[in-house]
Design brief:
Elements lengths: L4 H41 L4 H17 L9 H22 L10
């Protein structure tokens, strides 16, 4: 069975429309993410206390993680804990004790 030229043209047009819609969706996602990230960076810059800076930095990191295709709302907290918790603990330890040596986590 061979396809007629009309069917091939229709199939090519449908594929092109699909590609255009996917590219448009990706552009919209990045524009929206960029606006949210800009808001979080501004809030981080304008934070008054260390606790507030920690909060906004955590929110910013969550947004960065959510840009990855395999990170969703359900598993973002676990992935965040895997990547950032040990680093933040080490940073707090260095700040509290005044150490300048590198602190390695055991986890």
């Amino acid at each position: 069975m061979s396809m007629g030229s009309g069917t091939k043209i229709l199939l090519a047009e449908l594929i092109m429309i699909l590609v255009v819609l996917i590219v448009l969706w990706i552009v919209i996602v990045f524009i929206r993410s960029n606006a949210e990230l800009r808001y979080l960076r501004d809030a981080l810059r304008d934070a008054d206390s260390a606790g507030e800076r920690r909060y906004w930095r955590r929110q910013l990191r969550y947004r960065y993680l959510r840009l990855l295709p395999f990170v969703g709302p359900r598993n973002a907290e676990r992935i965040y804990g895997f990547f950032f918790t040990a680093q933040e603990t080490a940073e707090r330890f260095i700040f509290v004790c005044g150490c300048t040596q590198t602190v390695r986590s055991s986890g």
